[in-house]
Amino acid sequence: MRVVERDREMRGELPNKHHSYTFFVFLFFFLILFPDLSISVNTLSATESLTISSNKTIVSPGGVFELGFFRILGDSWYLGIWYKKISQRTYVWVANRDTPLSNPIGILKISNANLVILDNSDTHVWSTNLTGAVRSSVVAELLDNGNFVLRGSKINESDEFLWQSFDFPTDTLLPQMKLGRDHKRGLNRFVTSWKSSFDPSSGSFMFKLETLGLPEFFGFTSFLEVYRSGPWDGLRFSGILEMQQWDDIIYNFTENREEVAYTFRVTDHNSYSRLTINTVGRLEGFTWEPTQQEWNMFWFMPKDTCDLYGICGPYAYCDMSTSPTCNCIKGFQPLSPQDWASGDVTGRCRRKTQLTCGEDRFFRLMNMKIPATTAAIVDKRIGLKECEEKCKTHCNCTAYANSDIRNGGSGCIIWIGEFRDIRNYAADGQDLFVRLAAAEFGEFLLLVLDRITSENIKRSRSYSIYI
Known about the structure:
Elements: H1 2-10, H2 17-33, E1 43-45, E2 49-51, E3 58-59, E4 65-70, E5 78-83, E6 91-94, E7 107-111, E8 114-118, E9 124-127, E10 138-142, E11 148-152, E12 161-164, E13 172-173, E14 179-182, E15 187-189, E16 191-196, E17 199-210, E18 216-221, E19 224-228, E20 249-255, E21 259-266, E22 273-277, E23 283-289, E24 294-301, E25 316-318, E26 326-328, E27 332-334, H3 337-341, E28 349-351, E29 361-369, E30 377-379, H4 384-393, E31 397-401, E32 412-416, E33 422-424, E34 430-436, H5 438-454, E35 465-466
Parallel strand pairs: 25-33
Antiparallel strand pairs: 1-10, 2-7, 3-4, 4-5, 5-6, 7-8, 8-9, 10-11, 11-12, 13-22, 14-15, 14-21, 16-17, 17-18, 18-19, 20-21, 22-23, 23-24, 25-26, 27-28, 29-33, 29-34, 29-35, 30-32, 31-32, 31-34
């Protein structure tokens, strides 16, 4: 029997035991000498590392995303995540965006239960900066949703993230990623533009959730407002009417003691969507079109002049269907009529008649994007009638509205003093009630009656006056 096996081995029909032993010995020492080449498909353990020179990457389980070192121009190297399954290289997260490696000698590894990037002199250029008790065994993992996480290595710890890249966005919001505040952990998650198309370092523009008053998003540059989403009205952000028209995207807004955050998901798991703030501050929504092999922009903001923050000044509204687009609210007039006549409508509007507390009335503006609420008073416990009374008794109150437009409306917002950045829509929007002197309504009624008479009551436009 042994002679037969030996003959079969000589003919190559059985493996040579000596050769098999030699192979495993070689493999053992190979993995020790070259640990960078032994990285698991989608994880990085405490005994493994990722280097620029190895040209190795970590790939998510379904092959959707890839993590590794990259450079765009020059000698600046970054650790980032990009889509692996699409032909156009698109970065969605960059770890060391403001501390690039200056040469192709860098390493990513786990040290003291933290992810760290070291340069050629073993100096930390980036770290997850976790403090507290050090776990004996952790692992980093790239998930199929693009989230790079640090967790305990045991199976029962697989869902307990010690750290995750989703908590530290760069310029892109992916499905399941959240923008907003995590009160429990003290996080404020927002996106910041790249400095240029070739430089992923932090640029001048941010898109951030403001939680004073009612929650709403602002586009900022150098801490100056450029545009805003309008406050959450129970159905959508009031300045983004298109939100209810996105058939393939399900969005969610959460507001409770633990967090105030916006997120979205796609209904088709085989499609790719993202929101990105570009280098000039515009927020853009994209979906990948596999047939054209390109990104399709399905939405962007700001989209027109009326989206620019405060473009018409206080006590004025913007309307893209009028010329000029800026209009003083009923009961107000341009502070400088000459400027408005020449086309400069960025100035102020002032009241025609001063208010008399206790005698004033309210004019209803319909289909509006309501003013910014950062300095407004919000009371979600009362309805519109109580809101009116609250505004009427507060002599400095200039306008009020519902905080939630669902089911006929509920809640109360009142504005004290100047308000700005409102616009009129052809449809949708919500009602805004503006405080005017009672004398304005006498003049207004005469104008309405004159119009009705001149048209022989064939048609008339509907106005609402609240006394």
